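hiii so um. not sure if this is the right channel but i have a protein structure encoded as tokens and i wanna go backwards to a sequence. like what aa goes where. can anyone help
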């Protein structure tokens, strides 16, 4: 499975087996039953139809009509919340997100940007960034970017710069990681009263269609999650529902009171939380007055190079056709690390096939010690250091294998 579907699987790995540092979504439990983009679920009026996908075009799936970005903004004139799905490591998706924000801003909307990558507890660094008070490095340090998010800052830089330059408000909408750990191990009923203030009054876990969607993202070839016992699989599902609920609710709460009809919250969030309106939107809708819309970029070719002419019309309200590009767009090493659950947080527990790590000869069980002289004591340190490289750059990785130090010469290269 590729990073295409982008549930919060990287965070699931944090809950289950440490920090994932591969820059891609991992998979879980069982083989997928169907292609997630071609499920007959969601809006009954569209679920049995196919919507066209056109490169650099936006498809209104209700009309199966391809429009431009200006018309897209006009059709969202009464929308209050817009969920835009993403592949976290795909630069083309982030470019589409930025174009949508630009179009809405140009149309006179007061855009508020809701961010999956930050919990609702992070406020001052975002306020100071959009006020122009912080340098880029100061923001990354104060917001703890690589502690809270496992993906390369470069994927989001242009969006954050646009928000700063146009003084657009940015808000964290996620929950702290320990909240998800609690739900995964003890259930939703274990949430404390303070946390429940940042969740919808009711949380729906009964949708068979949503379970079908989540199941479709899972694959049997992931050693961390294959053969998972039913109780653990249910814990992962509840974690997904927790993210959906919190991010949907906090997106709605970001609007000012009394209501300003020019405001719109644009939520940057993994596509799995947006697809078919079954994730964050479904949890928000019963508690929200106003129009909610969704946009998901779709690559016009698949990983095998075959054209993607269309997807299920119920996949999202709008589709943005983007070119296929090798993944991930920016450098990653391509390993999962033991994380905080083990004595050696830099111990490799999974290697992404074809990644830089795989090409360099890293093995499961190796312990990362330094990367170009920088100590690697977990995935945060690894992500921060890898963020300094470009594709093609060389580096020197010191590891420990079977109790002996070893130096590997590596080069950051995409999968061939």
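sure thing!! here u go:
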């Amino acid at each position: 499975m590729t990073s295409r579907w982008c549930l919060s699987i990287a965070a699931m790995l944090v809950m289950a087996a440490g920090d994932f540092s591969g820059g891609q979504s991992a998979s879980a439990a069982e083989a997928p039953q169907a292609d997630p983009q071609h499920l007959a679920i969601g809006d009954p009026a569209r679920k049995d139809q196919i919507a066209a996908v056109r490169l650099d075009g936006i498809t209104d799936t209700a009309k199966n009509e391809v429009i431009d970005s200006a018309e897209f903004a006009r059709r969202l004139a009464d929308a209050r919340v817009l969920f835009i799905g993403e592949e976290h490591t795909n630069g083309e998706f982030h470019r589409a997100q930025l174009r949508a924000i630009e179009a809405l801003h140009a149309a006179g909307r007061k855009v508020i940007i809701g961010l999956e990558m930050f919990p609702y507890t992070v406020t001052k660094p975002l306020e100071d960034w959009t006020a122009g008070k912080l340098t880029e490095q100061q923001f990354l340090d104060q917001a703890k970017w690589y502690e809270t998010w496992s993906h390369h800052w470069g994927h989001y830089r242009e969006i954050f710069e646009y928000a700063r330059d146009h003084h657009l408000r940015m808000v964290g909408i996620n929950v702290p990681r320990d909240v998800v750990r609690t739900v995964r191990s003890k259930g939703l009923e274990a949430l404390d009263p303070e946390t429940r203030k940042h969740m919808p009054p009711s949380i729906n876990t009964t949708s068979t269609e949503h379970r079908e969607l989540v199941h479709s993202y899972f694959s049997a070839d992931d050693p961390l999650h294959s053969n998972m016992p039913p109780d653990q699989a249910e814990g992962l599902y509840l974690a997904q529902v927790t993210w959906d609920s919190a991010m949907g609710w906090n997106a709605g709460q970001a609007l000012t009171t009394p209501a300003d009809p020019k405001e719109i919250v644009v939520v940057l969030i993994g596509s799995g939380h947006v697809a078919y309106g079954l994730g964050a939107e479904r949890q928000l809708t019963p508690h929200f007055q106003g129009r909610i819309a969704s946009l998901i970029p779709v690559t016009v070719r698949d990983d095998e190079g075959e054209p993607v002419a269309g997807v299920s019309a119920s996949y999202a309200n709008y589709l943005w056709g983007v070119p296929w590009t090798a993944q991930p767009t920016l450098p990653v090493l391509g390993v999962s690390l033991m994380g905080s659950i083990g004595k050696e947080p830099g111990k490799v527990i999974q290697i992404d096939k074809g990644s830089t790590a795989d090409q360099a000869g890293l093995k499961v069980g190796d312990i990362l010690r330094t990367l170009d002289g920088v100590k690697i004591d977990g995935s945060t340190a690894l992500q921060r250091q890898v963020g300094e490289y470009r594709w093609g750059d060389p580096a020197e990785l010191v590891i420990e294998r079977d109790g002996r130090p070893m130096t590997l010469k590596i080069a950051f290269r995409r999968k061939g």
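oh and The radius of gyration is 21 Å.
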